Amino acid sequence: MTSSRKSKTLLIDQEAASALELLKDSLLYPVMKLMGEKESEEVLKTSLVKDKTFPFPFILAPSGKTNAKVIASLQKGDEVILLLHDKEFATLKVDDIFKINPKERIKHIYGTDDLSHPGVKSTLKRIGDFAISGEYDIVNHAPSQNKKKIQEAKDRISAKHTSSIVMAANPLHRAHERLIRQALDSTDLLVIFLLKPYDTKNISYEIRKESLDFFINNFLPKNRVVVVPLENSYIFAGYNEIIIDAIVAKNYGCDRLTIGRNHAGLGMFYDSNSNKSIIDKVVGIDIEISISSEFVYCDRCTTLVSTNTCPHGKHHQISYHADSILEILEAGLLPPAVLMRKEISAFLLSKLLPDRFKNLEKLYYDTFSFEGLLEEHDEKDFYLELMKLYQTTSLT
């Protein structure tokens, strides 16, 4: 490989790198390469690649003055090195360079170029005025091990059907659990694509993964569930998210995709009168897409129910908003058990607010009953015991 000190270089970020890895692993098929100008124009007209749905051109258009100067100096056949965090990520042989309109590209992805939209604002900053295409090789790239992981899980149980769900689980709450169970009830194997966003607004992927693993290992037939990380790059944003989810799930070997009724991308197109959605626009992608019911807690039914089956109306229903539940956790409060499983609440609080108490052992033994044996307890144990007190009924 040519040294990056002698070759021309372009700077890319983790989102671009993630998308290029998906492409290299054939997880975005029917797209198999970076698109040139002619291919891009065709996709803009038809939203098709090889007679299969793909909602926007797949291009590489890195922003920044340094990148702009380098791209302006490139010619067809030149080799350029893509740098990620100042390290060589890939080498690309230039085939085509063409001008794009960043605002128009934003519209194709998000459906709007309104800067008040947080996704629009952040994505616009990372798109330049020129796109570059060509064959590329990723440094030390190994084929996706997650494909192998899913196939091995299929083989173990001789799965005929493999369903999928894409979720952030930020945090994992009761409605997530019901959605997972519902999907698992009608399939042999369930693949949960757990999102890995690039911002700090989310609980870390590792903590969310551990929460999900706890639920799977303790409350589900774990040999029938596989968790796969999915880096949540900009190509999954906007109203086309469901389409890209379906394409990736299909290329991972799934034949079904379940999405929630309140999914943002679905909601923008859903017409309650005609029952239409973005799903109706999918052509040639051989995967069954189903829309799950919306789950709520009804104070009259006193349980988790589907809005389709509960007769009591919204004034009796508690919706499951992950951002609000997360706000409760970040304030150091235990969410009610109807919102989150107590073991997961306790685990998350112990991770989000470590070493919160000055003298945990004294607080533990002063507050809770115990059998006389002095044992070490961690913050997770403390929250679990506290939840038990919240759930007592004789004095409430």
Descriptive notes:
This protein has 3 domains: 8-138, Roll (Sulfate adenylyltransferase), CATH 3.10.400.10; 145-296, Rossmann fold (3-Layer(aba) Sandwich); 334-390, no CATH class. The chain is 36% helix and 20% strand. It has helices spanning 14-24, 37-46, 65-73, 102-110, 118-124, 145-157, 174-185, 205-219, 241-251, 264-267, 322-330, 342-352, 360-367, 379-390, and strands at 8-12, 48-49, 52-53, 60-62, 79-84, 87-93, 96-99, 127-133, 136-138, 162-167, 189-196, 225-231, 256-259, 288-291, 295-298, 303-306, 317-319. The longest helix is centred in the middle third of the chain and has 15 residues, at 205-219.
Task: Break the fold down into its secondary structure elements and pairings.
Layout: E1 8-12, H1 14-24, H2 37-46, E2 48-49, E3 52-53, E4 60-62, H3 65-73, E5 79-84, E6 87-93, E7 96-99, H4 102-110, H5 118-124, E8 127-133, E9 136-138, H6 145-157, E10 162-167, H7 174-185, E11 189-196, H8 205-219, E12 225-231, H9 241-251, E13 256-259, H10 264-267, E14 288-291, E15 295-298, E16 303-306, E17 317-319, H11 322-330, H12 342-352, H13 360-367, H14 379-390
Parallel strand pairs: 1-5, 10-11, 10-13, 11-12, 13-14
Antiparallel strand pairs: 2-3, 4-8, 5-6, 6-9, 7-8, 15-16, 15-17
Helix pairs in contact: 4-5, 8-12, 12-14
